[in-house]
Each structure stands twice: as C-alpha cells, then as structure tokens.
Amino acid sequence: MSGRRLRALRALRNSAKEKARAARTTARPVPSALPAGEGDVPLEPRIADAAAVAVSSVMDAALYRDGRRISTPSSLAEAYAQLRAEPGAMAWIGLYRPSEAELVSLAKEFDLHPLALEDAIQAHQRPKLERYGETLFVVLRAARYLDAPEEVDFAELHIFVGPGFVLTVRHGSAPDLSAVRRRMESNPELLTLGPEAVLYAILDTVVDGYAPVVAGVEKDMEESEIQVFGGDPQVSRRIYELSQEVLEFQRATRPLVPMLDGLQAGFVKYGTDEELQRYLRDVADHVTHTIERVDGFRQALADLLTLNATLVAQQQNAEMRALAEAGFEQNEEIKKISAWAAILFAPTLVGTIYGMNFDHIPELHWLLGYPFAILLMSVVCVSLYLVFKRRGWL
User: Fold this and answer.
1) Are 24 and 44 in contact (CB under 8 A)?
2) Burial of 104 (0-12, 13-18, 19+ CB in 10 A)
3) Tens digits of per-residue pLDDT, 131-187?
4) Are the CB atoms for 76 and 47 separated by under 8 Å?
5) Does this model's pTM top 0.70?
6) Which residue, 95, 137, 154, 306, could crosslink 116 as a Cys pair with Cβ 3.0–4.6 Å?
C-alpha cells in the first residue's frame, strides 16, 4: 500500500480507539470524484464527495426496522444520515467493486478495523472469518457453472456484519444478492433477527450455489470418461483443466468448515437466536456434503487420468506390435525376393559369360558347350532353390 493510504489507515485506528470522529488526515486523490488540484482537501469532505459521485457502485442500500424496509437511500452519504436519524434501525448496504474512497468512508462510519479494510481494498483473499470486537468480517468465494464454455467462474464476496449494519462488497458477478434481499424481505420474521440473519442468508445462498457447480463438474467428468474410452487425444488436457477447477473449488469450500465451526462456537457467548442456530447448522451440513463430493471428484479425476494413460500406453503397444508384425511380414517378403533374385542371378551370370563376343574364350568351339551351359544353369538354380527352401526363405 502507498504511504498516504497507510496514514489514512492509522488515522482510522486512532479514531476508533478514541471514539472520536473529528480526526483529519490526507488520502490519495480520487480523480473520478475530484477535479484537478484538490489533492490536499481533508479526508471527510473528499469522502462525502466521492460517495455522492460514485453512486454506481452502490447496488442497493436500505434501512430496516422490525424486519421491514423503511428507507431506500440513493447514496452512502444519504444512508449515513438516515441511519443516524433512525436509532435502532439496521442498514444493509450492497456495493459492487467500490472505490477505495467509498470503502474508507464505510470504515469511518461503521468503525471497521483497518486490517479488514485493507483486505477489502486489495481483495484476492482466501475464505475466512475474522472478529474485530463486535464486527465480523467474512470472505466468501462464490461459484457458478458456465454452460457455454463448460467452466467454473469464481467470485469474491466480502461481508461486514456489526451492530445494526450489514455491508456486502462484491468483486464479481456472483452471487445474486438481490435474490437474497428479496428472500429476506419476504420473511420479516427472519429479518427481524438482525444482521446475523442476513449473514446466514448470504452463506446459505453461496453454499446452495455450489450445487449446480457440482452437477456441472460431474457432467464434465462423465463426458471426459466417454472421451477416454473413445480414444480422444484431447481428453488429457480436459481432465487437467477439470482437476484445476476442482482444486480451486476445494480452496473455496474447505475453509467454510472452520468458519462455520467458529460461528457455532460463539452461539452462546453472543446470544445467537436458537432458530438461527438451526439454520446455520443446516448450512454446515450442506458444506460438509459439498466438500465430500468435491474430494471424490479429485480422486476420480486422478483415477481417470491414470486410466487414460494406461489406455494410451496399451494403444501405443498395440500400434508397435502391429508395426513389428508388418516389419516381420515385410522381412519375409524381402527374403523371398532376395532368394528368387539369387536363383535368377546364376543363369544370368552364366549366360552373360557365354554371351561375350570373343573368339578365344574357352569352350567357344566345344561341341558340348551349349548343353553344358544349360545343365550348369539348371544345377545352380536347383541347388539354390533347395538351400533357400530348407532355410525357410521360400
């Protein structure tokens, strides 16, 4: 982080300790919210300006009392003002990829810990649960299965849960928190249980979102198995890509077990509603079931990759054996051709010698020379044939 950002975080920590909101500090300029030349404007006015300008990152903001929406502010500044004017109300603010200025504004308003703020700014965090005083900071990895490319898309979600407020910061398109909000607003009794109920609903939605992903990966594995037995040469790459997705899936789901265990361990200490405890235990069961299936996928993919390697090796061995047999047959044919060539070469040699046009060649004027030459060629050819036949060349 830059030096200016670190100074802003230290100022936030001091203000939280002293419980005062009059601290002044300098933050990095925000070009989208400020005109040129306002880099030295104090933090609080700049944050207010940024919150008013960058409204697009606030996906939805609402105040609730007794489980029912009582206000829908259009900006962070308006949400702060209405929350101060409504003691006992709960604020639920959802943001999508907010700017650093907006996150710093939220941290000052709700006394968020600087370490949690830093994690929310930097993103790319592993799933975890941290408790800073009365505020919970939760990081989740949502997932969704994309049918067209047949791959899994992961998105990061940060949740701040404190007395009277819930802040959600999405760094991806999943999950659909608008559906969570509609679900909670349709069940005022559950929403009356407060911020922890909202946290449960988000956890439940993220975990339920894993089911289609599990089904999609399982379908891809079945198709890969068909490709393996079909001898598709591209199947090894697909199995490897599936293995990477399953590994990423494990990184998203495994940390949920200690997270939910930590929530359950604080049920008594923090007075969690008994009905809400049942809901959270149900989420924990779903997480355990998902993790078991994902672990099975990884082992199945490893076995499938081994099977594919075995089948490829068998196919290569069969091709080598066929090639060797073809070579052996070719050698046999070459033997036959060589044998007949040798047999035919003998009379050719004799005929060539006796066909030379010289007067003084021996046997040239011999009366039995021609029958002798024919007999000689016949004897040589028959002898060679018998020799080659005995050796199996013919």
Assistant:
1) yes
2) buried
3) 998 899 999 999 988 888 888 888 999 999 999 999 999 887 778 888 899 999 999
4) no
5) no
6) 137
